[in-house]
Amino acid sequence: MSCALGNIQAKKRLFISLLIVSLIALSVIFFGIWKISYLGLQSIHEFLPAAFGAVLLVIVLLQGWGIFSVVAGVKGWKIPQLFYRQTYWLLNMLFYVVLGAGRVLRIDRRRIEASFVAVSNAVIRNCHLKVTADRLLVLTPHCLQLASCPHKITRDPNNCKRCGGCDVGALVTMAEEMGFHFFVLTGGTLARQTVKKIRPQAIVAIACERDLTSGIQDVYPIPSVGVMNIRPNGPCYNTHVDLAEFREAIEAIIDKDTIGKKTDNKE
Length: 267
Ligand code: SF4
Fold this sequence. Notes:
alpha/beta, Rossmann fold, 2 domains, 4-stranded parallel sheet, 8 helices, 4 strands, elongated, binds iron/sulfur cluster
């Protein structure tokens, strides 16, 4: 347990470290540009170097604020509720900055994506968001189903016979008991259609780091918690999920008073 916790902390540290590295790099580059252009700008107008410098400084400060917001969101520091939505937005925007920094430093994209998911989960968790059971959508890829299983669960997961051959049966049972929507999907298009149809207030998705990262950004601004799948047989084949970790993610976001009940909450 403490090993898993340490692993998650390390994952989050990578994203935040890359954010800080990118801020330092941006500051140095901007200072260089400002220095080089100083004389040219001054020859046009004496105030231009200061004005140009102010614009560059504002960009650096905005990124600095973004990093501070993300760190505050991850650490659970008390910041006004108003800023939580903005933090989630900044996190999604800054992902591309981090990806760029990671490319320069030759850091594996998968590690960065896993780190992004860990940071995003922490930010959502620290928002203390609660949604009713029937406005929570759980999505998982088709590879979680045992490859030799003959039952068509992508049309209706209730076709699963809960034989214990894969983790789908346990998820169907959990969905039935708790009342959240549960779908097994074959791709991104179906995921988008399902989100449009269900109109959830939050999503919990089980997938690999790549699909979780693109999924979180696809469904933005709907908050989406990612649970990494387990791939003992390689990618996209007979995958698993840590059911205890999944239940913990659900319990952190679901309004306990609505478990197993239908509400008329459509907002
Ligand atoms: S648990 Fe359901 S989906 Fe998995 S192998 Fe059994 S019947 Fe198929």
